[in-house]
Structures are given as structure tokens and as C-alpha cells.
Design brief:
The protein is an alpha+beta fold. The chain has three helices and ten strands. The longest helix is centred in the first third of the chain and has 12 residues. The chain is globular. The relative contact order is 0.15.
Length: about 170
């Protein structure tokens, strides 16, 4: 039987949602949708709208959010949304709710990219991938993260709010 989980990327302008089947050996995005944040009063309302639209009630969820995630209180940097993760988990009836910074999530994905998706700015492009690797990207704000390590010794993502430096 499928074991559905909700996965989401919550940015300043859009909230992107999908489901994935945790019982499957291959990660596949199911019923992906992008919703404009301006249409919803909160992340909870956007999540409830998505879940009602796809008629799903997952037990687990993971949200990548455009802000620091070190405490229970989450405050999006470029959107007037804030919430308690414990309260959101309870309200949505989730057994588990995980949070990660949006560019921390991008950094964790870098080691699995194909070589032709990478640009080497310094060093031998044919050398094995190893950190530190900077991850930058424009959106509503500027996302910045770092990944350190190697395939051999393991990877660690460093989440930052580097887009907010003066």
C-alpha cells in the first residue's frame, strides 16, 4: 500500500507542493502543483487547499522554507507568513513534520546532480566532486547555501541567510 508524504517548497511568491510514495524504491513527484502565495492567508491554508485538491491525507510532510528553521516559530523572510511547526503538525494531523531551509535543500541535492549540470569555477572539472560548493539562486530573494565534504567522506549542507548581508 502507498505511504504518501507531502513535500513542499515554500518561497516568498509561490508554494510548490507534491506527494511522494515513501514505500516506493524510487522517488517520484506525484500531483505537483504551484500555488501563488498571494491567494492564501497562511501556509496552512495553502497546504489545506492543495491536499483537498488532490484528495490526500498524508501522515508525513517535509517543507523547504525560505527562512531560518532553527526554532518552533517559522517566519518567512519575504512573505508575511509565520507559524508554529508543532501547531501546524497538530492542525494537519501529521505524524511527522520536517522543516529545512529552502537553499539547504538545494545544497543537499548537489551531490546527486549529473556532471553536465555543474559549472566548475576553479580547479579541474573532471576531478571528483568535493566541497566547499556554493549554491546561489535568485527568487523572491537571493538564496545562499554551502555544501562541504565529499562522496567519500559524506556531505553536510550549511544553511545561510547570505542573501540578507549588506
Amino acid at each position: 500500500a502507498p505511504s504518501l508524504a507531502l513535500i513542499a517548497d515554500i518561497g516568498g511568491t509561490n508554494a510548490r507542493f507534491a506527494l511522494t510514495d515513501l514505500s516506493s524504491p524510487h522517488l517520484e513527484l506525484l500531483q505537483s502543483r504551484s500555488l501563488p502565495n498571494a491567494d492564501f492567508a497562511s501556509v496552512q491554508h495553502a497546504m489545506e487547499h492543495y491536499l483537498a485538491g488532490v484528495a490526500a491525507k498524508p501522515a508525513r510532510a517535509a517543507l523547504a522554507v525560505a527562512c531560518p528553521v532553527g526554532s518552533d516559530e517559522i517566519r518567512l523572510t519575504n512573505r508575511a507568513w509565520s507559524f508554529s511547526r508543532r501547531e501546524l503538525q497538530r492542525t494537519l494531523g501529521l505524524d511527522e513534520l520536517r522543516m529545512i531551509n529552502d537553499f539547504g535543500a538545494v545544497a543537499w541535492a548537489v551531490p546527486s546532480l549529473e556532471r553536465d549540470s555543474l559549472v566548475t569555477l576553479h580547479g579541474d572539472p573532471a576531478a571528483p566532486l568535493r566541497g566547499p560548493i556554493s549554491v546561489l539562486g535568485p527568487g523572491t530573494g537571493l538564496g545562499v547555501a554551502l555544501i562541504v565534504g565529499s562522496h567519500e567522506h559524506g556531505w553536510h549542507a550549511v544553511e545561510t541567510e547570505g542573501g540578507h548581508v549588506g
